[in-house]
Amino acid sequence: MKNRELLEKPFAPTQIKQRQGTYGDVLDYVESVAIVQRLNDALDGDWSFAVLQHKIYEDEVVVLGQLSTNGVTKTQFGKSKITRSKKDQSMVSLGDDFKAAASDSLKKCATLMGVGLHLYAESGNKSPAKEGSAVNPSENGRITARQLSAIFAIGKSQGMDNQAIKDYTKEVFSKLPDFLTRQEASVIIQQLQEASNA
Predict the structure, then answer these.
(1) What is the domain extent for residue 153?
(2) Which residues, in sequence order, are CB contacts of 134 under 8 Å at separation 6+?
(3) Is the Cβ–Cβ distance between 99 and 109 less than 8 Å?
(4) pLDDT confidence of residue 18
(5) Distance from first CA to last CA of the chain, Å, rounded?
(6) Would you say residue 175 lies in a domain?
(7) Where are the extended beta strands (E) located within the chain?
(8) In contact, 180 and 188? CB cutoff 8 Å
(9) Domain-located, residue 146
(10) Domain for residue 43, yes or no?
(11) Mean pLDDT per segment of 10 residues, for the chain of length 198 residues?
(12) Cα 95 to the chain's mean position, in Å?
């Protein structure tokens, strides 16, 4: 792949933003425009992104996106909450929600090519409770918010409801999703992705 070093170069601190995660934690992220700029710089604009599938659920939209360049293709899910009117709970703009889900998918695909990967590698080092988890058997690297979110997004994209996803992780590891270790979560994600590609 062209210029892998530039693809994987850490973003400047001024480009890294923070937002509240679904489960109350604080997540680092880089805006889509910075991801697109990095792809353009590293790949001389020689890349393409396409949404392969999209679904609407009660509270969110999910897309399956594909990023391709020079014979290398990465596929990943993206999601966005459906924005509803406070007045009557009607959908405000499904198009904007799909756009946000596509941006989320693009970012995740780009991560598989190394863009912003340092944010994931460092995410476990911010909370003192997580420090040293690799050597602390009682912590055992508990599932991250990103992994938990991915498990539910992939499961929902296959038509599973929340209870079916919980039943699945209980069947495989005798645990609810929230109590999986990072390694167990990776196994579940891989199995769900393989099932979706079957």
Answers:
(1) 128-198
(2) 141
(3) no
(4) 80
(5) 27
(6) yes
(7) 16-20, 26-30, 48-56, 60-69, 72-81
(8) yes
(9) yes
(10) no
(11) 81 84 71 95 95 94 95 94 90 92 95 85 40 34 84 89 90 86 87 77
(12) 20
